[in-house]
Write a structure and sequence with these properties.
The chain has 3 helices and 3 strands, in the order E-H-E-H-E-H. By secondary structure, the protein is an alpha/beta fold. The longest helix has 13 residues. The termini are far apart. The C terminus is likely disordered.
Amino acid sequence: MKMSNITDKVVVITGASSGIGESTAKLLAEQGAKVVLGARRSNRIDAVVQEISASGGKAIGFATDVTKRAEVEALIQGPSTVSAASMCSSITPALCPSHRSRPLR
């Protein structure tokens, strides 16, 4: 079942390296959302981004500890400063943390 009004929306998900967060990220990306993933385990975030991208979804990940306000603020600001190119399906997970300086379109 296709969700309405989710295509091309930017969705920020914390705890996205496993469990419900990971499943939610994959589902929303499958439905056309651009997902911005945050979690402490950067290696797992990179793997989830790679899986989503390999399936044709648009995702980017940031190492984020939600107990640190500055990291949460950076995660929230990430989507507004990430380039459309970094959200394309050809993104390489190793590059994800470096894309904070370009506008998302």
